[in-house]
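Student:
Attend to each token:
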Amino acid sequence: MKRIIWLLGISGTLVPSQIQASSEKPVTGRPNIVLIIADDLGYGELGCQGNPQIPTPNIDAIAKNGIRFTSGYVSAPNCSPSRAGIMTGKYQTRFGYENNPIGAKNDDPGYGLPTNQKTMADILHNNGYTTAVIGKWHLGGTAKFHPLRRGFDEFFGFLHEGHSYAYPTGKDVTSMYRRLTLPDGTKGRWIHGNTVYYTAMGYDEPPYDANNPILRGSQPVEENSYLTEAFTREAINFIDRKKDQPFFLEVAFNSVHSPLQAKNTDLAGLSGINDIQRRIFVGMLINMDHGIGQIVQKLKESGLEDNTIIIFLSDNGGPTIELTSSNAPLRGEKGNLYEGGIRIPFIIQWNGKIPAGGTFDKPVISLDILPTVAAAAGADTPKDIDGVNLLPYITGEKSNPPHQFLFWRQNGLTALRHGSWKIYNNKSNSLQPEWELYNLVDDISETNNLIKQFPDKFRELYTDWNELNEQMVDPLFQ
């Protein structure tokens, strides 16, 4: 008995001292990962993408210090399936997550990223990383799909496809809403103080906030800050609290997704932009760019910038009529599989580990993020994914293209890219497809359909597409 008490006494003195010693020593070696996802940001809207109208110095600085992918794609032309691809490293059509739940469908118990799919957060968390997602989730609005059950230690944000940035009556915000009919019974635009209505879309602004509160963990909170700034604040706070350990931080801004709401302080210097819709959009993007600058500055102040992989991309192309988005020089927009719907701004920075200020022109896809960060973190990469580790291609260790093919399918719309060639079916009725063929190196804007000139090339790509399509499963939901 005395020996047992003596041993318990030893364990009682050793364990706390070991815990104390480990908590005072920051973990070094493995890089932190900050994944920044913009929402509905068009290919042509950033300074580093060639836009002279909008000042985006902080996103441009990530490009200056890293690699910008000029042929960077997402796996779907809208939000939720694209994010499912990012989180799993797989074509989401492999597990039936083909479509985009909106509104009340977010609360359907069957709508969400299937729980048998391992996420990027799962992989990094199981490798010792602390993990957080801040902002938009949109991968299931019911309990079993909650971020805290998908590998994330912390969550601050909302679960559905969109959210107001500020209360509609906010005096320091100008808002523009879609309406079926204006208050005077006409069509067009109606401006009253800081509120603008417009009928160009032909329907009302969706009730984004219905049953969709801002959550900390799973508990609703009242948030009075402009939402982009609230997400920036929470990201900075997370970095400050977790700077002594490797972390994975996903900052999923809902900017520049509708509703169109910009702070008046961000609009003050934009009087040269005459169109109020475009002016609000630009103000929203400027505010997000400023927030990204604050996050990067916090990494610098914490001594973490050189040991942090920073990734920036949009979840899909921009919706032109709704947001005035520029996808230039690309054809198409959010919701279709022309380049404007799926080719997006895509940048990676890792100081001292990848070249700075360059571009990478071979096609890559957002599915590549998971294996890239897993390799950098020393984590095992799942064998059944479609993404590839981009690091050896970025550094020049490998010179061949990372992908032989890139594949897309949604609601009957289908596409495949192989080298410089792309085929696209623009008809959702799969019984009456209308295929198009483009050479993207010669015709990035997809203006010259070459299917009649090169029928053999089309048949070759169609055979490749069909082989990949047979590996996919039917959609889980519509």
User: Anything to note?
Assistant: The first strand starts at residue 32 and ends at 38. Residues 1-25 have pLDDT under 50 and may be disordered.
